[in-house]
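Ticket reopened. Same input as before:
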Amino acid sequence: MNAPTAPDWRDDIFAVLQAHEIKQVYHVPDAGHSRLIESCQRSNAMRTLALTTEEEGVALAAGAWLGGQRSVLLMQSSGVGNTINLMGLTKTMRLPLLTLITMRGDYGEFNSWQYPMGQGTPKVLEAMGVLLYSVDTAEEVKATVDAAARSAFNGGQAVAVLLRQKLIGIKNFGKK
Amino acid sequence: MSTATLRRRPLVKTILEGATDDLLVIAGLGSSNWDVTEAGDRPLNMPLWGAMGATVAMGLGLAIAQPTKRVLVITGDGDMLMGMGSLATVAAQQPHNLAICVLDNEKFGETGNQATHTSARNQGPTDSGAGADLSVIARGCGIADSATIRGEAEVAQLVADLRRKSGPVFRLVKVMVEKLEFVMPPQDGAHLKDRFRQALLGQA
Ligand SMILES: Cc1ncc(C[n+]2csc(CCOP(=O)(O)OP(=O)(O)O)c2C)c(N)n1
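Engineering reply: fixed in the latest deploy. New output:
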């Protein structure tokens, strides 16, 4: 058992997902999302699905919406590249989509392999017609994710919230 | 060359015969879309015109959202190969109401009958595949109820399994390579989605 830890912005996101009656949660894990994923896994109101690749999450979201359920796709910025063709579904089918993206290769990143897709992430999403909301501080998380869910499920939009590296903290694997 | 004898059009018609509102169908792009449409366009069909590789995952999201309905995915081997990982994602969820039927002509039919990886090896420079067996792959991914159908004598059981057997059910059906007429459903994706939701949920 983990020792109980102080509430943080991941708990704010979980509360927003509950408030918006999200029923299906898709993820290819990212360390930044792990606490949120565990909260979703423990919830009786949500079904949490691990994916083999992030594009499955877009297809699942389409299926869930056809069946009347709301969903969320949790991924890291590198996963955005895996979704591109299927992001087109949100336009052709005029689907709502909510995705929460933990950014890598963004701000003080130590791993050079993360930069190309991290830097490409906003451009790629924009090119596919996905609305971008961006969060740099813990205080803004709750209101931003709430607004994104409203745009998605009330406004019928595909919306991505970029949880910037400034918010998540710089992973350094022991490097100074 | 494939030795398949089953013809996809009458087969799909038989699979979908007498479909009620309890049957939700997702059809993969290419020939499967036209097959399902010839059997009868209906609001509770979601025929895909693109989104290659997405068909099974879409069926899974729908099956979880609608546990009291039967969800049937009908698609081609090319589409299934592109979305192979989704078979493991299905297995992890074990949806009792999901059946997957792959019509395996061993070709990318829609784009000119190039061999897919399900074609046998060593069939010459333009016709060789890998001999990949999607039914073994499905079982290896964790879908225990997986089988291959080759003959007319097995069709009645196939239909019963796809329509009623507790899932997840995976059936690979070896079908002939044929040149068939295009029978097209509406193309507008938003319209297809709205009419589906209207029929299922009473609201678009
Ligand atoms: C991502 C993507 N790559 C390529 C294509 C082009 N394409 C359209 S249909 C198709 C072949 C589908 O093959 P299969 O699923 O086996 O269908 P069938 O042989 O039954 O027509 C391909 C490659 C596409 N639509 N999308």
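The CA atoms of residues 77 and 116 of chain A lie 10 Å apart. Residues A 85; B 28-32, 50, 52, 76-79, 103, 105, 107-111, 116 surround thiamine diphosphate (CB under 6 Å). Please confirm and we'll close it.
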